[in-house]
Design goal:
Elements: E1 12-15, H1 25-40, E2 44-49, H2 59-72, E3 81-82, H3 87-99, E4 103-106, H4 110-122, E5 146-149, E6 156-161, E7 165-170, E8 178-180, H5 188-198, E9 203-207, H6 211-224, E10 230-234, E11 237-238, H7 254-259, H8 265-273, H9 287-293, E12 304-305, H10 308-321, H11 324-335, H12 339-352, H13 359-366, H14 379-384, H15 387-401, H16 408-421, H17 426-438, H18 446-453, H19 455-467
Parallel strand pairs: 1-2, 2-3, 9-10, 11-12
Antiparallel strand pairs: 4-5, 5-8, 6-7
Helix pairs in contact: 1-9, 3-5, 5-6, 8-10, 11-12, 11-13, 15-16, 15-17, 15-19, 16-17, 16-18
């Protein structure tokens, strides 16, 4: 096995999703691992859209996959390869195998297959294709047939997997699977092998649910005398409770993490990287560090557990690290801001992002800046602004109006002077002020809020709550 510092020349990896749905979180991690492995070794990372299922494959799914990969910054090198465009090539290889004697025409009917399957069930044996056509050449000219591989029946097949280690399967367990259907269309098993060879793929990094497929695909590779790729079968992602990952665990499409959960791409990139792979105790890993450090040999053998709370906490870190104009550009469409309002949002962002875990929280936290008077108080703020609190607001209003400068320290001093002279704790003034200024009981620091809103707007909002309770 290689270390993380060794470079393998000529590496070509691929990510090969089926466009029958969104780019799910497991697929995104597989793409990431392929991208990182290729980048680490200075190789190529290719994207293959496996769209041979014409009924279920959709343009919307293809667009969602391409969009999700682009958002994460792991688009393929060059144009995507669409599997459906190469069906003639797949069929050509099936006929080459037929000519080499490594495959055969099988005329078994559906009824015969069903009967064979029922016999296996009755005998409590695993079902294996046992076709009388395997070694025959007296093929009828007028009957439909499929082309099956002549899988080896003796010995065993061994895979030295970079993640799973050495895995051995008896060849008797590999049946004569179909290469070409009776309508001339290739099966997934054939198309994958041909595409990998034609694309020059050297390393196949994919979920361990494909490990059994690897042994079947090797039957084709060996029969064609093609180079065997290096395999790395990565354990699947489970939920936080160890169960199979589902929507209740956060198994959403990549676009949903962006649009519905407000996750930044660098946060999801970092989180997916750490799902099953690690570099010591490092939790925050940049894209550059990931490329430098990534080693597929250090992917764990056990399923990793997806924890949405950990992702949100990590996202909070990246929000605090992000540029203010960039964050403002993400928040602005959610609030429908003008150019002038966007400028204010950028100014406010250092205070807003300090406590936000996602873009939606940023937008919610910023909304008070652009609310029209009189503010609509949320339930907690309405309860807080009782008669006593409104009396305190009047005291604060007078002191703030007389402040020599409308800046943080001067406003802080003015409010503290009111508190001290009236034997009040600072919170007895700050909390009603926050409710009056923002309509909420949580916000950035109250003196930052005053500065951001400006003197005229701040005093007007306070006065609104001094005059009468908000209906």
């Amino acid at each position: 096995m290689t270390s993380a510092n060794d470079k393998i020349p000529g590496v070509v990896t691929r990510f090969a999703p089926s466009p029958t749905g969104y780019l799910h979180i497991g697929g995104a991690r597989t793409a990431l691992f392929n991208w990182l492995f290729a980048r680490h070794h200075g190789g190529k990372y290719l994207l293959r859209i496996e769209d041979t299922d014409k009924v279920r494959s959709t343009k919307e799914a293809i667009d969602a996959i391409l969009d999700g990969l682009d958002w994460l910054g792991i688009s393929g090198d060059g144009e995507p390869y669409f599997q459906s465009q190469f069906e003639k090539r797949h069929a050509e290889v099936a006929h080459q195998l037929l000519e080499k004697g490594a495959a055969y025409r099988c005329y078994m009917t559906q009824e015969e297959l069903a009967a064979s399957r029922e016999r296996a069930q009755a005998e409590r044996k695993p079902f294996r294709i046992n076709s009388e056509w395997r070694d025959r050449s007296d093929w009828p000219a007028d009957k439909p047939y499929v082309i099956r591989i002549k899988a080896p029946q003796q010995g065993e097949t061994v895979i030295d997997d970079l993640v799973q280690g050495r895995v051995t399967v008896a060849n008797a367990e590999i049946d004569d699977f179909i290469l070409l259907r009776s309508d001339g269309s290739p099966t997934y098993m054939l198309a994958v092998v041909v595409d990998d060879f034609d694309m020059g793929v050297t390393h196949v990094i994919r979920g361990d649910d494909h490990l059994n497929n690897a042994f079947r695909q090797l039957a084709i590779i060996n029969a064609m005398e093609w180079p065997v790729p290096t395999y790395a079968h990565v354990p699947l992602i489970h939920g936080f409770d160890g169960a199979k990952l589902s929507k209740r665990h956060g198994a959403l499409g990549v676009d949903a993490y962006r649009d519905e959960l407000g996750i930044l791409p660098e946060a999801l990139f970092n989180y997916l990287l750490r799902l099953g792979w690690g570099h010591g105790d490092d939790e925050i890993i940049s894209r550059e560090q990931a490329v430098e450090w990534f080693d597929v040999n250090h992917v764990g053998k056990s399923p990793s557990r997806f924890d949405l709370k950990k992702l949100e906490n990590l996202n909070g870190h990246y929000i605090r690290e992000a540029d203010d104009p960039r964050l403002a550009s993400l928040v602005s469409p959610k609030l429908g801001l003008s150019y002038e309002e966007l400028t204010l949002l950028i100014r406010a962002m250092p205070e807003l992002k300090a406590r936000a875990h996602n873009v939606h929280e940023l937008a919610d936290g910023a909304s008070f800046l652009f609310d029209k008077r009189p503010l609509k108080l949320d339930e907690k703020a309405a309860v807080l602004l009782n008669d006593e609190a409104r009396t305190h607001l009047a005291l604060a209003h007078g002191a703030l109006a007389a402040a020599p400068q409308w800046e943080h320290d001067a406003l802080d001093a003015a409010v503290r002077e009111v508190a001290e002279s009236n034997s009040l704790k600072l919170g007895k003034l700050a909390q009603p002020l926050r409710a009056a200024l923002t309509g909420k009981t949580t916000s950035p620091g109250i003196f930052d809020v005053l500065v951001l809103l400006g003197k005229e707007e701040s005093l007007a909002r306070i006065a609104d709550q001094m005059l009468e309770p908000n209906k």
